[in-house]
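Repro case for the chain-ordering regression, as requested:
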Amino acid sequence: MTVSDFSRILDARRLRADFPALQRATRPGVPLVYLDSTATSQKPQQVVDALAAFYRSRNANVHRGIYTLAEEATAAYEEARQKVAAFIGAAEAAEIVFVRNATEAVNLVAYAWGRANLHAGDLIVLTEMEHHANLVPWQMLAAERGVRLEFIPVTPEGALDMAALPGLLAQEPKLVAVSGMSNVTGVQPDVAEIARQAHAAGAVVLVDGAQLVPHAPVDVQALGADFLAFSGHKMLGPTGVGVLYGRRALLEAMPPFLGGGDMIRWVKLRSFDVNDVPYKFEAGTPPIAEAVALGAAVDYLQHVGMEAIHAYEQAMAAYVLPRLQEVPGLHLLGTATERRGAVFSFWMDDIHAHDVAQILDHYGIAVRAGHHCAQPLHTKFGVPATARASFYFYNLPEEADHLIAALYKAKEVFA
Amino acid sequence: MEDLYREYILDHYKSPKFRGHLDDYTLVYEDDNPTCGDHLHMELKIAPDGTVADARFDGMGCALSQASADILLEHIVGKPVEEVKAFSKDDLLNLLGISLGPVRLKCALLSLKVLKGALYGLNAEGAQK
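-- result from build under test --
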């Protein structure tokens, strides 16, 4: 894989020009090398402009306003919903619930669907690679309802042990909730196959798409997701807006989540009737401008092309992985070469992850250090903390080279 | 390389004088920093005259958290307990001689937190007195 091979997939150098934050320096004279898109992506000017344009000229509260401005605001908000629906292949826009982030989306399902459908002794199947967002809400439900939790194990390479799935499904779980892509190892489990088997066993399938949706083409029908949770800010959008996709029949049958304005049809002093989906789950003023800007982010991603983004990051993973593995004393958490994105968590002999991150920052490289909200996975691999370098389509192979060179410098400091 | 990794800190990290355990100690405490996994265990021997006769630490974590423990113990051994109890966050930062952002401040101050836990007789989970 040479540098010119990358540019044949996607012109990252040209696209980078759209991202103002990528033009800045970490410090004067030290260019920013942003390798933390798994935590949050940078934003193109188009998204920043959409956010500002809404507040400049279309700001009003949505729904029920009779005046022109409110109608325009409502149209913009609902147009964003349609864009998101089309982006993930939802059958209709009503299956898109705007929430705060993927975490809130999972909590919404745990609270509304979980409390209505799960009882003592019922089983939820998760995986050992889950982000805390797709673990703790189920632990809370388990503690409250006596629901059982079982886990698809992670192999030493960081992949899911698919051989364990039939045995777990034989216990007839009510829900299988899996990550579409690990935020630690970058592993992308075969969610479609998991969903196929889970459905055959009668389970509902929730996919944590916080990492998958920004980095790969997603079609909820092909994926077999009954619920899909993702965040806007990891896919070029602003913070404060996320999405819960739910199959209409499931959403219809669920009780509401938060109570308040917008989620009701009629309210009397002692009772209320709920609104239709998706409004039933959108109590209070929603993140209007953020949703509109998320719509602009979806436009941008579709303009670049999710197939191209996925291919580019596959190429990046193939480029970075062997170079990292050549660094003496560096250990990767997750060495899978198949079905993985360009996310690399690693630890180094004699250098704590915080020190690695601090030294990389000295060279302008932004990586994260810690357990990345996946403590059980780190416990499994016996490391308290890792440093994580994560790439997006706007990262260049030269930036990977810069990372590798800086890791050798870190080794010199601690030699 | 910036301040944080100057020789003074790195020397204490790579070649600590006070890492290890005491055969006989009066006070013990341990704590961790869950956000980064830093862990510190500290043992103090208090002499009959009320001075810190000896001290050791053990643990794992970033260079700053471990070097800070070594520097702190080097400073307090031989001093009266009452004086050590008055030792403040600013005193430790002066001793380290570096300025730190909020995240790294936690790493640097873990040693002081564990020392104070030992001196004030708090019960650390898993640490046997």
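Ordering looks correct now. Chain B has one domain: 3-119.
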